[in-house]
Design brief:
The chain has 14 helices and 14 strands. It is an alpha/beta fold. Helix 5 links the parallel strand 5 and strand 6.
């Protein structure tokens, strides 16, 4: 046993070194309006059971109808905000290791988001404006599927020069060592993403991005591919990976091949080989590590214990990032991702128990 002890001490020392604002996230802060709905509602608004889209004119009524007809729950959401919140939950101490930037309205929903960020011990710096209301996302749940319709509103008003460029906010970028931005933010402020990505690359910090949704690879291909050379870790699920491959002309539907081809796309910071991580729901997670592609099995769960898969992908990333800020091995990051996703799908919304049970 004696030989083991120094190792334990080293870990304890390592735990202490985590500083506030080490993890930086920027994205669309949304209030999730979650409800278990019926197929009729999906059909009425032309929604696929498992998808994420931006609200159009025809979806305006959807938000009111859900609140009127179904039992709704409100949760602080937005993909990036969910992930940094879960990373903070996994880390526990110190508080405010996770930083989040995004735009909200000066309204009741904005107030809820501020309160929820505070409760989750996330250091949130919101750009507040009064022209647009705080963004919302309707999460329409049927069986173990979820169809997300995001009405960005205020989230769409984020301005680099009015917020990110301010000295007190840019200081947060300089303090951080790991960056995470969901692809959804490419629709809002690609110039903010690029500025952060270039900073990470120049200072050999870790910049990670998520494919987020098929429509991002399809309709926001140009801004996405401008950022891609700076991406050290790319996350996505199997559907997003397939769409990305089609759009990039990879000419393969094999997810391992897609991961390899994505890994070898041009990259600016040669000190870090790109890591590609594709989750596949209940199937194993595809990971490129070095020149290998591995598949890591997810934790078993009984179908009857799954309450809501909304937020599973965000939770996976949050768990992954919680170990990445400690500079732990890739296997540990994946294991933590699987753990937190497994916790989140047993609960409604992207919520979690008081403390994690991850060792």
């Amino acid at each position: 046993m004696a030989a083991e002890e120094p190792q334990a001490k080293k870990l304890k020392l390592e735990e202490k070194e985590l500083s506030q604002n080490a993890l930086f996230g920027m994205g669309n802060p949304l209030l999730d309006i979650c409800a278990v709905v019926d197929k009729d509602l999906l059909d009425k608004y032309g929604l696929k059971p498992n998808d994420q889209i931006l609200a159009e004119e025809k979806h305006k009524e959807l938000f009111e109808e859900i609140v009127r007809k179904f039992k709704v729950e409100y949760h602080a959401g937005g993909s990036t905000q969910n992930s940094v919140k879960i990373a903070q939950w996994m880390i526990q101490q110190p508080h405010k290791v996770s930083t989040f930037l995004g735009c909200i309205g000066t309204d009741k929903f904005g107030g809820i988001l501020k309160k929820k960020a505070e409760e989750a011990h996330v250091d949130a710096y919101y750009y507040e404006q009064s022209e647009e209301p705080t963004g919302t996302c309707a999460a329409c749940i049927t069986d173990d599927n979820r169809s997300l319709v995001a009405n960005l509103a205020a989230a769409n008003c984020y301005k680099k020069e009015k917020h990110l460029d301010l000295e007190e906010n840019w200081k947060l970028v300089e303090k951080a060592k790991v960056f995470y931005i969901a692809g959804f933010f490419l629709t809002v402020s690609p110039e903010s993403i690029l500025k952060v990505a270039k900073h990470a690359s120049e200072h050999n910090k870790v910049f990670s991005l998520n494919l987020s949704a098929p429509f991002i690879s399809q309709f926001f291909k140009e801004p996405m591919m401008k950022v891609m050379p700076y991406v050290d870790i790319l996350f996505g699920n199997e559907t997003e990976a397939a769409t990305f491959a089609r759009e990039q002309g990879f000419e393969t539907e094999d997810i391992e091949e897609i991961a390899k081809k994505t890994q070898s796309l041009p990259k600016v910071n040669k000190k870090r080989q790109r890591i590609v991580v594709f989750t596949q729901g209940k199937d194993g997670t595809v990971v490129t590590s070095g020149n290998e592609v591995t598949i890591s099995p997810v934790l078993d769960i009984d179908q009857s214990e799954i309450v809501d898969t909304n937020g599973a992908g965000d939770a996976f990333v949050g768990g992954f990032l919680s170990q990445l800020v400690y500079d732990r091995p890739l296997e540990e990051c994946i294991r933590a991702g699987h753990y937190s996703a497994n916790v989140i799908i047993r609960r409604a919304g992207c919520t979690f128990p008081e403390k994690p049970d991850f060792h």
